[in-house]
């Protein structure tokens, strides 16, 4: 009966490492191999063995002081297979070194879980890149390089809001903030304004791929007691807010910002001031068809000739 038939490649590799480790521990004596012999038996190139030596992951069992030749022992095979397993699982050299020094079930489990989540996030980022490429290919096929959005100006009054502001891993994690805020509102039984839309404020002075400063806000009818990171506050009045409407999937938002760039070039009396906002009037929570999503982008601007008092 083949017990490994239902296991993944990584699971089979880990079992292989454990079996070799236990096999070596059960045998006595030391047998020394030349580096070429060790390379053939372990199916690891001499170049990689030298690299592991240089990085400190696997030092030879002995180095001939006259010739400089490297020699390896049978006992090092299990150690090498651990290195290969961790390398194939996406661990860096420094991460491999730490894990090898604490090769215990509990610690290894935690390390593998962390690496799993890291790879999962990387896959999500790559999937987003694929979507962008698909969109670009579609646009090229349809002979569309970008869609122009009209930019207008309006003033935004100060608003009484309940907000949650955090540094989050990336913009895709904004959904988690909204879930936290919604849960707090439900638990506290707060009275939310039905006449205003909720919105997000992006406080960073630049676009960042990680560790982004995002604040999600819901307009409330009255103030309350701030606690646990949930803050009741008045937003600042914005005298001149440039805004545009983006229709369709969230991937279209990038074209909306591109329209702002062209608009600012044509209206060079204005410059950006403060964090931009996004209001999702229609999204996954109230619209099944992504082509019908509606997002409003707002960017505060001021006259470049306004010197103040």
Automatic annotation (TrEMBL):
CDD domains per record: HTH_BmrR
Per its record, what are the GO molecular function terms?
DNA binding; DNA-binding transcription factor activity
Q: Which residues form a coiled coil?
A: 109-143
Q: Where is the HTH merR-type domain?
A: 32-102
UniProtKB keywords: Coiled coil, DNA-binding
**SUPFAM superfamilies in the record:** Probable bacterial effector-binding domain, Putative DNA-binding domain
Name of the protein: DNA-binding transcriptional MerR regulator
What organism is listed for this UniProt entry? Answer: Fontibacillus solani
